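sry for the spam today, last one i promise. struct tokens for design, 89 residues
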């Protein structure tokens, strides 16, 4: 189990990116959140098994209209009581 904080840059706002993150995370039973940043990027904290998180990222790259040009992540501490994935505004 791990928790990662991602930062996505590219065409990731105004193309359904957060909704796709939400849908894929729920499908894969991951927890965390995703939100738009003021600079046009999107940040996401996601928690689950590392290989499942990698599957989520692979699925994001396959989505229509979304163009991820840069992706960065680092590990965070696990949030033990987190139960769901949400879109934050």
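last one done:
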């Amino acid at each position: 189990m791990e928790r990662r904080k991602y930062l996505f840059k590219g065409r990731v706002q105004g193309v359904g990116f957060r909704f796709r993150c939400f849908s894929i995370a729920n499908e894969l039973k991951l927890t965390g959140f995703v939100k738009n940043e003021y600079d046009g990027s999107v940040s996401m904290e996601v928690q689950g098994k590392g290989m499942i998180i990698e599957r989520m990222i692979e699925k994001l790259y396959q989505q229509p209209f979304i163009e991820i040009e840069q992706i960065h992540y680092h590990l965070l501490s696990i949030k033990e009581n987190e139960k769901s994935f949400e879109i934050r505004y």
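The mean pLDDT is 97. ok im logging off now
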